[in-house]
Amino acid sequence: MTQTISVIRGDGIGPEIMDATLKVLDTMNLGLQYEFVDAGLAALESSGELIPQTTLDSIARNKIALKSPLTTPVGEGFTSINVTLRKKFDLYANVRPAKSFPNTKSRFPTGVDLITIRENTEGLYIGDGQTVSADGEIATSTSRVTHKGAERVVRYAFELAKRTGRRKVTIVHKANILKSTSGLFLKTAREVAAAYPEIECNEMIVDNTCMQLVMRPEQFDVIVTTNLFGDILSDLCAGLVGGLGLAPGANIGDDTAIFEAVHGSAPDIAGKGIANPCALLLAAAQMLDHLGLPDRATALREAIVHTLEAKDNLTPDLGGTGTTQSFAEAIAKRLV
Asked: Residue ranges of the Isopropylmalate dehydrogenase-like domain (predicted)?
């Protein structure tokens, strides 16, 4: 297989964890070719734009991107880079797995294996209709949910469950209060669920979902929900299994996909060589699944697990004394 992917090295610790991830991928001899493009602060400094047109053109051409964390400057006039990319390429499904890993600082070292699927292009999170009154006393934002948006993300969740052998989908909502927006999402989800009788489906209000995840996360398999709820729940799920350093994410559209580490750029440790590359490596495994290489994706995940089990060159956040590169090398040697 030969596949060119757009690679965004990112800001802060981004270049370090990207170099480590590409080192591991190269060990696997997958035939991947890399087209390096800029976004974030690096792009702003070199081109005056957070997302240059050359970067957008590269992603549009290759259809696959692997992205390190980016920094959106704080201040007026700067729109979230991630939100912009999701809108530009209509990446409607945000897919965030959370799985227990050995030797992590986690409340649940075993028993958690779930996926949160978040609608990525609608809802309150995208910030439509934001206004503040002239006197600064009233702020308003609009939440917009469509039948099309709800239908395709819920269908994606059921298709993923069917394809991967998962047995249950939980529809998370707040339709008891948000009767229009969340109500439409729930109504549409029920319509989709009826086409998948072989997959168990249950419904849960978002606040109860938070409590249940903390108490008994093993009851969940696939969660599908709206944008803002999914943003919050997916980070909660990451907290169950050791934090964002073990949290990958995929942004999926009909013909384009961007895979990323979902944590921040961590400028406080940038350049120190101690950043944990696992989140981006796990995102790369999601990318391999997407490319039709599930066996190689499984091999990569197993190599990460075996390295964690052996406590081989783990980075400081995992209780070790290894570096970003030595940890990646320990994973890579298990793939040779």
From this structure: 4-331
